[in-house]
Amino acid sequence: MALIKYSRPNLDVNSRNFSDILDEFFNDSLNYRKDTFMPTVDISETENDFQVEVSLPGLKKDDINIDLENGRLTISGERKLENEETGKNYHRVESSYGSFSRSFQLPDSIDEESIEAKYDNGVLNINIKKSEEKVKKQIKIS
């Protein structure tokens, strides 16, 4: 079976959007970087805490490291391509594999002792409570 690079039908260079051309250029030029994996992260805040949600499909919780040092939260690990000899010939691999590390500077208003992490169905959820003592207070001018 011969593999043919996909191109959108009925589109030539003159009728393509500039953003499509840039996307194709950067995707093709970065395609060789199969040794890195960059998980997506969503960070939200409520009145009482910060929530970090990291998409880590295909990883086991033992493959993930979470560190807190000097107010910097670091999530790292490695997603490995299981290259078993099963007679399987891949024709396309779009999943990213390799080591990753994401770091975020946390505000001073957190309670470092209250950090909780749960991993379920490929999603890592980290809950960081705010410290009542360190929360900024409004000062009235008299």
Structural description of this entry:
With 142 residues, the chain is mainly β. The protein has a domain at 39-80 and 97-134: Sandwich (Immunoglobulin-like), CATH 2.60.40.790. The protein contains one helix and seven strands. It has a four-stranded antiparallel beta sheet with strand order 1-2-7-6, with no helix packed on it. Strand 3 (64-69) and strand 4 form a beta hairpin. The longest helix has 13 residues, at 18-30. The model has no long low-confidence stretch (mean pLDDT 80).
Question: What is shown here, in short?
Answer:
The chain is mainly β and 142 residues long. It has a domain of 80 residues: Immunoglobulin-like (Sandwich), CATH 2.60.40.790.
Structural topology:
Layout: H1 18-30, E1 41-45, E2 49-55, E3 64-69, E4 72-79, E5 98-105, E6 116-120, E7 123-129
Antiparallel strand pairs: 1-2, 2-7, 3-4, 4-5, 6-7
Major β-sheet profile: 4 strands, antiparallel
- At CATH level 3, the topology of the domain at 39-80 and 97-134 is Immunoglobulin-like
Strand content: 25-35%
Low-confidence stretches: none
Overall spatial form? extended
If strands are numbered along the chain, what order do they take across the biggest sheet? 1-2-7-6
State Rg.
Answer: 22 Å
Average predicted local confidence, pLDDT: 80
Name the structural class. Answer: mainly beta
Look at the structure and give the CATH class of the domain at 39-80 and 97-134: Mainly Beta
How many strand units? 7
Task: Tell me the helix content.
Answer: under 10%
SSE order, one letter for each helix or strand: HEEEEEEE
Using the 3D structure, state the CATH architecture of the domain at 39-80 and 97-134: Sandwich
Report the end-to-end length measured between terminal Cα atoms: 80 Å
The number of helical elements comes to 1
